[in-house]
Design brief:
Length: 270
């Protein structure tokens, strides 16, 4: 696994970028109307096919993504990206969770990205998810070279909140993206600290702000569990962690998404 991980971290950087010369933004051969959501298919580089197929999964040659854009989108400007990560329970996929974040995210001026494959894995593993996500990020970076500098945040509910930590820690170690925040809803266990210890991202990883969104009626991840996660994160050394409650259950609250994205902007000064 260590050899595969090292190869993965190196491969993130292997891509030739050309200058953007067209006034009309396009992505994967499709025009990008500001304020729209693109449902696109894209080729997966052989390296990421290999990575995603680790552990006996089939090779995903084609990726599938939903990408929502804010009104007024122009790739010449800086646009933060919110990456959606879902639980794997009940065969749930990132694309299924994308609607939780699309409206609040784009309303705050963020691109919202969710990725998958066009085939089903035998094991919906971290390597499967990360291989496809990385292929999508590579696609965006290749189309818009300036996007390598755009801030990126992760969002997840329940198991997706836990998995976000692993995705982010691996990408941070590769220095593949500039991570600016975590929005974690309905989380009852601190997996980010574990990911930090396993993958050893740079010390600056501890500066990433973390918003824990807690439904007061959540029976799966009650408020006490969110407080436990907060204490664990602070004990690990994370410097910006807050728990915010809302009148709801085990769900994503759109108003909290918007507030969290504003907080990430404030702390990141972008």
């Amino acid at each position: 696994m260590n050899r595969v991980a090292r190869m993965f971290f190196a491969a993130i950087f292997v891509c030739s970028f050309g200058a953007v010369t067209c006034k009309c933004a396009t992505l994967a051969g499709q025009p990008v109307p500001p304020g729209a959501t693109l449902d696109i298919k894209f080729p997966v580089d052989k390296f990421f096919q290999d990575y995603a197929s680790t552990g006996g999964n089939p090779r995903p040659t084609t990726g599938h993504a939903l990408i929502s854009f804010p009104k007024g989108f122009d790739p010449a400007r800086t646009w933060p990206i919110l990456i959606v990560i879902s639980t794997a329970d009940n065969r749930r996929t990132n694309l299924m969770d994308a609607p939780f974040y699309q409206e609040p995210g784009t309303a705050e001026g963020w691109i919202v990205l969710a990725t998958d494959a066009t085939i089903t894995p035998n094991n919906d593993s971290d390597s499967w998810r990360l291989g496809l996500l990385s292929a999508a990020i590579q696609m965006v970076h290749k189309e818009w070279p300036q996007s390598t500098r755009w801030p990126v945040a992760f969002a997840g509910l329940s198991g997706g909140a836990k998995r976000s930590g692993y995705m982010a820690a691996m990408l941070a170690k590769a220095q593949a993206v500039k991570i600016c925040g975590f929005f974690l809803a309905g989380i009852n266990d601190d997996q980010i600290s574990l990911a930090y210890r396993i993958y050893h991202p740079p010390p600056s990883f501890l500066n990433i702000p973390i918003w824990l969104s807690s439904g007061v009626g959540d029976s799966i991840a009650p408020p006490s569990k969110h407080e436990h996660v907060r204490a664990s994160l602070v004990n690990t050394g994370f410097k910006h962690v807050r728990v915010e409650s809302f009148a709801g259950g085990h769900e994503v609250d759109p108003a909290q998404v918007r507030l969290a994205l504003r907080w990430f902007r404030q702390l990141g000064n972008f």
